[in-house]
Design brief:
262 residues, two-stranded antiparallel ribbon, globular
Length: 262
């Protein structure tokens, strides 16, 4: 693995990562209603995470008929293993489902508003572009911009750019204070938050450990010895983290607006 390049990216993005980990969003989430608003925004990041993952699989493996071997076998193995874990993991009862489907179950359990994400996906299924699908969705501009940036990266058709976003802009930035807050709410209303609590714990267990190592190796393989590719990887990683900060800003603003009306 190109440790020097990997370390450079990690050093360059540390400030942005710290801004996410220490974001004031977490300090304004104190009850079930706050968490419901957070989930309404966050679900878009959970969904488009799967979209960039599948774009990587399409670019790095053969997903069409007739089949031909494409690219490097080690890279094919890495992306396929990640896809298996993300697209067909298990819920707390051992039932197979994607992390997105698990998150949707968590939203249903707590009573979060899933109409925006449902409407958006229905528009896409009907053939709308991402921009057009968002035209009638009631969600923050920051959530829309977050998804649009992801699809901008997908549209580059450059696997090393997509891999960098997937690797360094992923959702392993869950601070301890957020988990403590979720655990506190769980103690009060376990019947409303047990699935979300499981999602976070599973996410940390799977994505924060095993998948992160696989993703680092995949990004290193794809960038190789190309200074241009490593530079592009850094540029898009920084942009993806900035988009995450703005997504958190949008969620925080709506939570504060809701509190002011109570």
């Amino acid at each position: 693995m190109e440790q020097t390049h990997i370390q450079k990216i990690q050093d360059e993005i540390q400030d942005l990562r710290n801004q996410i980990i220490n974001h004031t969003l977490y300090s304004v989430i104190s009850d079930q209603n706050d968490l419901k608003i957070f989930m309404k925004h966050h679900v878009f990041a959970v969904w488009d995470f799967m979209s960039i993952l599948k774009s990587l699989q399409n670019n790095l493996t053969c997903t069409s008929i007739p089949w031909f071997p494409i690219g490097d076998a080690d890279t094919r193995f890495l992306i396929n293993e990640i896809v298996v874990g993300e697209e067909s993991d298990v819920d707390q009862f051992g039932k197979r489902m994607s992390h997105f489907e698990l998150y949707m179950q968590a939203m249903n359990q707590i009573g979060a508003n899933n109409e925006p994400i449902h409407h958006f996906l229905n528009q896409l299924k009907a053939g709308s572009s991402v921009d057009n699908a968002f035209s009638s969705v009631e969600i923050s501009e920051s959530a829309k911009n977050f998804v649009k940036f992801t699809f901008e990266a997908i549209a580059t058709n450059q696997a090393h750019i997509q891999a960098a976003i997937f690797t360094f802009g992923r959702e392993d930035l869950i601070p301890g204070m957020f988990m403590s807050m979720v655990n506190d709410i769980y103690q009060r209303i376990p019947e409303s938050i047990s699935i979300f609590k499981y999602y976070l714990e599973r996410h940390i267990e799977v994505d924060g450990d095993h998948h992160s190592h696989l993703a680092l190796q995949m990004t290193s393989n794809l960038c190789g010895n190309s200074d241009i590719k490593w530079s592009q990887a850094l540029e898009y990683t920084k942009r993806s983290l900035q988009m995450r900060i703005e997504l958190w800003n949008g969620a925080k603003d709506e939570i504060l607006a809701s509190k002011s009306q109570q």
